[in-house]
Write a structure and sequence with these properties.
Blueprint: E1 4-7, H1 13-22, E2 24-26, E3 39-41, H2 49-55, E4 61-63, H3 74-79, E5 83-85, H4 92-107, H5 110-118, E6 138-142, H6 146-159, E7 162-166, E8 180-182, H7 186-192, E9 195-198, H8 212-217, E10 222-226, H9 235-243, E11 247-252, E12 272-274, H10 283-301
Helix pairs in contact: 1-10, 4-6
């Protein structure tokens, strides 16, 4: 009897066919049909221990496309021997390029210029469109994982910015490419940078990491970019430091909550660029995430070790004895 795979997101017919070769695939979105499944891949819901127990003891993996697994209680999954899988390599290039696009857009006042051209009665003038030259400016990168490294590389070697990087999991003594310097002091990133870009996962230690204290450490006239997770930034504090003119601007692909409420002041600020969490939403990015997630699902359905496991120390977990 084939194992059951439940998904609430859509993949191309050829990827569905790969899954159906080794499993019964359920795609109608009926959450009750998760019960009894060995593999569950949900992107529109949160998974806590209670839901995992409801699905049943045969649940072996929770699989997601992309990097983020914050909707899953990973500790609860680990305690039950359930593997949590993602596709960490897939969105790297697309997300890094989007972060650089946000950096350029806010520095060069692209959105304000576009608004002025489309609405000649907007009241905007050329002073409102005065941008910031990037050559030789300092970019602070928080998080030196796959995406952070690529952002640092593009900024240092392509734009010729000075790049200062912090990651608590990367020792400051680690060799880095020319133009990129590691620091073990997170506050130094905020104090010394003209631009700060965030590339860290959401976890208790990073929630509101960019708080009011750190935002006010930043140089007057500097910029914040966030293409990681919305709650990494204290959004109320960000609004205050933008309103009083301490920061020159912000560029965000993520908000808290997401999507933002209609009355969110950030949406009315001409010195803020906001995109709807689309950094990885490119042709190659989506294709890589979907293929990677299906790779994990197919391997799990065959009783084999998935390629990417967030809680790898749990292996073999509920795969034991298959």
């Amino acid at each position: 009897m084939k194992p059951k795979v439940w998904m609430d997101w859509t993949v191309a017919p050829e990827l569905q066919a790969r899954i159906r070769e080794v499993a019964e695939l359920i795609t109608d979105g009926d959450q009750e049909k998760m019960i009894g499944c060995e593999v569950v891949s949900g992107v529109r819901m949160k998974f806590d221990g209670a839901l995992m127990d409801k699905i049943g003891p045969q649940l072996r993996i929770l699989a997601r496309p992309g990097i983020g697994v914050d909707p899953i209680d990973v500790d609860a999954a680990s305690a039950r021997g359930i593997l949590v899988c993602n596709t960490p390599d897939a969105p790297t290039e697309s997300t890094a390029e989007h972060a650089i696009a946000l950096l350029m857009a806010i520095a060069k006042r692209v959105i304000v210029g576009d608004m002025s051209m489309r609405n000649f009665d907007s009241g905007l003038n050329r002073n409102d469109m005065r941008g910031t030259e990037l050559l030789g400016r300092t970019l602070g990168v928080v998080g030196y994982g796959r995406i952070g490294r690529r952002v640092a590389e593009i900024a240092a070697h392509g734009i010729k910015m000075k790049v200062l990087v912090h990651d608590p999991f990367v020792p400051a003594s680690t060799p880095t490419p020319e133009g990129i310097t590691l620091t073990d002091d997170l506050d130094e990133i905020f104090r010394e940078s003209d631009f700060v870009t965030l590339h860290t996962p959401l976890m208790p230690s990073t929630r509101h990491m960019a708080n009011e204290t750190r935002l006010r450490m930043m140089k007057k006239g500097s910029y914040l970019i966030n293409a990681s997770r919305g709650p990494v930034v204290d959004e109320a504090a960000l609004i205050r430091v933008l309103n009083d003119g301490h920061l020159a601007g912000a560029a965000l692909d993520v908000t808290d909550p997401e999507p933002p409420l209609a009355d969110n002041p950030l949406l009315k600020m001409t010195n803020v660029v906001v995109t709807p969490h689309i950094a990885s939403n490119t042709d190659r990015g989506v294709d890589a995430m979907h293929n990677g997630a299906v790779d994990n699902i197919v391997l799990a359905a065959q009783g084999q070790k998935p390629r990417w496991i967030v809680n790898a120390d749990v292996w073999p977990g509920r795969f034991a004895g298959l």
